[in-house]
Design a protein that fits this description.
Layout: H1 3-24, E1 28-31, H2 37-48, E2 52-57, H3 64-72, E3 76-80, H4 86-95, E4 103-106, H5 133-152, H6 154-158, E5 164-168, H7 185-206, E6 211-215, E7 220-221, E8 234-235, H8 236-249, E9 257-259
Helix pairs in contact: 2-8, 4-5, 5-7
Length: about 270
Amino acid sequence: MRAFPQILRACGVALLLGVLAGQANAETVLITGANQGIGLEFARQYAARGWTVVATHRRSSPPEELVKLQKEFPKVRIEKMDVTDHAQVDALALKMKGEPIDLIINNAALKRTGPITDPNANADQRLGTLDYKLFDDFMHTNVTGPLRIAESFREHVKSSQLKKFITISSAAGSVSVLPRAGDNYWYRISKAALNQAMRLVSVDYKKDGVLVAFFHPGGVRTESFKNLNIQGLEETDVAVERLVKTIDGLTLKDTGRFLTPDGRDQPW
């Protein structure tokens, strides 16, 4: 009989260790624009870690790339969510009500309106031939989209263990460094606005104990650049691996920072 309390204690310790082990593998990440490029690689790497990956896209049907990933990693959840459609953002937030999200990665973005191989495809972002109707598209995707995510999913991140809100920005939005060329007007302007938006969010989110950081990912050889002979680009898996490692090490003291992939401050 005297051994019975000891058995109970042993069972309690075993149960606690089991719970903690389960929690260690219970992280959830939500990624916007997860069907290609950096977003898809983020989804792949976090899925390989055993995380629940909420991979969002704006296609009419689930993208083939995500379907394949889900078959390999059953904890991948494919969700349709166009960040420019606030009703879709709110609907997913409501669907996931009560579910903690440890990490949100705002990756969905608009950079150009035509293939990079077409030298005239980006004329709508050059002075003299600017297409002003496109300005709203860039702002809605690159700025108000992440802001809506910040509003709609605030409680999800706040209630999580890791409490991290990450945005993929670009050095193209830096205002402290003179651009090398007068190009990509709408992209550059929208990324500058995005950086300021995330600074503002970081102030509000800090009250919740949530880290907010945004990254210039560097030159990455995504699908658009695969067949182009551009020197200095980093392979997507290598670039994302560096980003993931840096995100792992971020704490609340880093909130509001604009970072390079290896965690140094990016001028902006």
